[in-house]
Automatic annotation (TrEMBL):
GO terms for cellular component: plasma membrane. This is Inner membrane protein ybaN. Coiled coil: none annotated. The chain crosses the membrane at residues 6-39, 97-113. The keyword Nuclease does not apply. InterPro entries: DUF454. It holds the Pfam family DUF454. Keywords: Membrane, Transmembrane, Transmembrane helix.
Amino acid sequence: MRRQLYLIAGFLSIGLGAIGAFLPLLPTVPFMILAAFCFARSSPRLEAKLLNHRQFGPHIRRWRERGAISRRGKIAAVAAFGFSIALALILSPWPWFLIPVAAALIGGSWIWSRPEA
């Protein structure tokens, strides 16, 4: 039962990552890292496929080995946070627009604290 849940979570993560390739606010690589984590516990064949993927494999391996995020990834994350904050300032009333600001400050500082590839 647990293996099937990890397999389902892995496929959901890949689906969200695929959507994230087209939507700027949804990150792709973190979902692929999550999918690799889930597949490691459910399907070694699918995990190997992700680890050997031309685009996502290096990111997944760097994350697993050193917890590293590339400079380009950090910049993209901060840009997405900035876009989210701008949308919240435009569309949300006081004090609700402070939630994405707080999330960006917390998430952004954590992302920048990670080692670089």
